[in-house]
Design brief:
Layout: E1 4-7, E2 13-17, E3 22-23, H1 30-40, E4 50-56, H2 62-74, E5 77-83, H3 90-93, H4 98-102, H5 107-115, E6 121-125, E7 128-133, E8 149-154, H6 168-176, E9 178-186, H7 191-200
Parallel strand pairs: 4-5, 4-8, 5-7, 8-9
Antiparallel strand pairs: 1-2, 2-3, 6-7
Helix pairs in contact: 1-2, 6-7
């Protein structure tokens, strides 16, 4: 997959995929968007001392990196499962500037998120374990997790670019593998997506 690097308004990278005419992150600010949508509105609302996170779309690894930093800051154990069918190459991942902007001393930790093997648990940091699965979640019956999830980051490409990832079957599956009072966050506020989430059983609020 052909990928181009672009600088967003907060100085952080996003990746652009010409074939889909789509960016991995908001051009208004990749770090800013991920912090707002997934950390501030998602992870920080979960009060459990040990948290199980499911991410749909590992992408650049930014959400995982921010989650790792939160785990360390709060000494809170987080098990992070991320599904991705088309991983960013390690060469491209090492060019991303997130660690340089957030904490330059953690650059190797960020790179390790991409270098760790797929299909197995990796203890990336003291409070952060990562399971990356190369899996086609457009067929949700492919996914059989060992546990239920407390927080879900839904970060697939936009519905108009990747409609197969925004279906009732997918949100039904996510609801079925979510713990009681689980939190799902996504950047997409389309009415059709809100209705699918409600039909699956989620109570929906706009950020």
């Amino acid at each position: 997959m052909n990928i181009k690097f672009e600088i967003t308004e907060d100085g952080s990278h996003t990746l652009f995929v010409p074939e889909r005419n789509e960016h991995y992150h908001s051009t208004h600010g990749a770090i800013q968007e991920s912090m707002h949508v997934y950390i501030d509105a998602g992870l920080r609302h979960c009060v459990k001392s040990e948290v199980k996170v499911l991410e749909i779309g590992f992408g650049t690894g930014l959400n995982a990196f921010l989650t790792l930093l939160e785990a360390e800051k709060n000494s809170r154990k987080i098990d992070f499962t991320s599904l991705e069918l088309y991983p960013v190459s390690i060469t491209d991942a090492e060019k991303l500037n997130y660690a340089e902007l957030i904490d330059p001393t953690r650059k190797e930790v960020f790179n390790e998120l991409h270098k760790t093997g797929w299909g197995k648990w990796n203890q990336v940091a003291l409070y952060f374990s990562l399971l990356k699965m190369r899996l086609d979640f457009s067929n949700p019956s492919n996914f059989h997790p060992e546990n239920k999830f407390d927080v879900v980051f839904f970060d697939a490409f936009a519905p108009e670019k990747q409609p197969e990832m925004w279906t009732p079957a997918i949100f039904d599956k996510i609801y079925s593998v979510s713990s009681e009072n689980a939190i799902l966050t996504t950047y997409c506020a389309k009415g059709s997506v809100r209705r699918m989430l409600q039909a699956a059983g989620f109570f929906v609020e706009r950020l």
